[in-house]
Amino acid sequence: MPTTPRTPECDKLAAAGHQRTQLIEFIEWLQNNWRLRQEEDRTDVLDLHDEITVLDFLGIDRDKLEEERTALLEYQRELNEVT
Q1: CA distance 68 to 66
Q2: Structural domain harbouring 48
Q3: Is the CB of residue 23 less than 8 Å from the CB of residue 60?
Q4: Is 81 part of a structural domain of the chain?
Q5: Residues 32-52: pLDDT tens digits?
Q6: Of 2, 44, 51, 60, which is least surrounded by CB within 10 A?
């Protein structure tokens, strides 16, 4: 039987579900309002990348998260072969 992979970054992401959603909504709101202001004041555009910014804020390593997701997929494939 395959060993379940450790997934600390996935666990962090899952635990921050509601907080993550609120942060993304705030960033979208900020981008929309900044664009309006930018059009009025002709200032520079605020360029934020929602998911990257939120993951950084939550202390989640994107590369490790991707490795864990890949490990989980491989684990599931191995389980499917056993059953």
Answers
A1: 5
A2: 8-76
A3: no
A4: no
A5: 776 655 555 555 555 555 566
A6: 44
pTM beyond 0.70, yes or no: no
Q: What's the average model confidence in pLDDT over 7-29?
A: 88
- Return the sign of the alpha-carbon dihedral for residues 65, 71, 77, 82: negative
Tell me if 83 is assigned to some domain.
no
Residue 28 identity (one-letter amino acid): E
What type of residue sits at position 14? A
Q: What is the pLDDT of residue 39?
A: 57
Asked if residue 69 is part of any domain, the answer here is: yes
Structure tokens at 52: 């990257």
- Binned at pLDDT 50, 70 and 90, residue 8 comes out as very high
